[in-house]
Fold this sequence. Notes:
Oligomer: single chain
Helix content: 40-55%
Number of domains: 3
Shape: globular
Largest sheet: 6 strands, parallel
Radius of gyration: 27 Å
Amino acid sequence: MEDDSENQAARIHVAIADPGREDNYLDIFEYLEENRILSSISTYSSNTRRSRPDILLASDEWCSEYSVKILEAKRNGIPVLHIVDGIVKWGNVWENPRSQNEAAGMPMFQPILADKIACIGSSQARLFCSWGQASKVAVTGLPRFDRYARIFNDINTTSPSKTPCTNLKRTILVIVANKPGYVESQVALARKSLDDLNSTLSQINILNKYCIIWRYGPRSPEVLPSSLHGSVENTGTLFDALAKADFVISSPSTATLEAMSMDIPTCIIDYLNKPEFIQAAWSIRSNNEMREVIESLLNSEENRMTYQRYLLHDQMRLDGLATPRVFALMQKMISISKASLMKGLKPDYSKIDTDPFCYSSLVPYSYHPEFLFPAHSLFVRSDTDELKAELGHLRLRVQQLENQITSLKWHVHNKSVFARSRRKASMIVHRLRSFLKQRR
Length: 440
């Protein structure tokens, strides 16, 4: 009985800030369930303070609704852990409408709102450090990619790549990212790159040695060539598609790292000619170099494969499973939070050491968001007292508006009920009159 009570006491109540994105947490929840650590899961709400969660998980900080929840939880002393859902892309940060227009929202990760952010790999952590977020990074890997970690650790990456088979068809998987661009000119370039790729593949595959499969996201069909060389296979999971692929050509996306983790020769195709936060050993930036790069990819050149493994090591942590590391981070955050609350202190999570390196000592960067995001006047302001007062007034105004909306919903509902009752009464009166007429 004593052991059961200790286990019960150790169990944790986890809340999530962003309902609808539960896929990012499934592996964590399964791990907690299997180890009898999880007491309950809920969607965070300020109205449920009786069942105060031990920790809040988030994977989205750019939706204002979720961001408000994150900041409120922090004010209440609840630790918040952000588990990123993939890579960070140049376009998401610098060309997203949020970065260009104050009315469109706040720029991504400027700053990171959570107390800690579980990064996919070392390069992502360094990127966040360059934005002044060194105290928040933790390189854990992504729990939802643990299946790739298992495969990666089973592969003997020190041995040469397999020689391409000349007797059987080999599969080239082309992956088109969900978001080809933020403006029409970028979408047009994405469309042009895929048209060129389609043409080049048809020339290379003149002897029909390769099986070419195209896979796209729900928002990318409009950029595919009208007459594809190969077939479209969009059913099943990406993991299943990669398991059948011998080569991958992909738009910059997390899928690139997933392919590399399975030791598949992988190429990024991107005509935008912008810096990118993800790198591969093969890349196509224009039609001029396309055929040469693809032929190199199909030869699986060992020097390139060695470089691919190096890039993967930097971009995706795969030395063991991410889920236990994320749980260990959660435990430390919960422990610090409880100890700080007992002492009446503000929790300090900056000293948590879960990483193979201390990134805070590797930050020579000078970060100035007021110059990087000129459209956002908030970054220029230094009048903290007035900002605090404005925030207080805005909170009160939001609460007033929410009360008005609730009241309007109540009136609309009652009006609708009244209208239905009135129609029903009219029908009864009409039937009664008809009945009386017939009786006469």
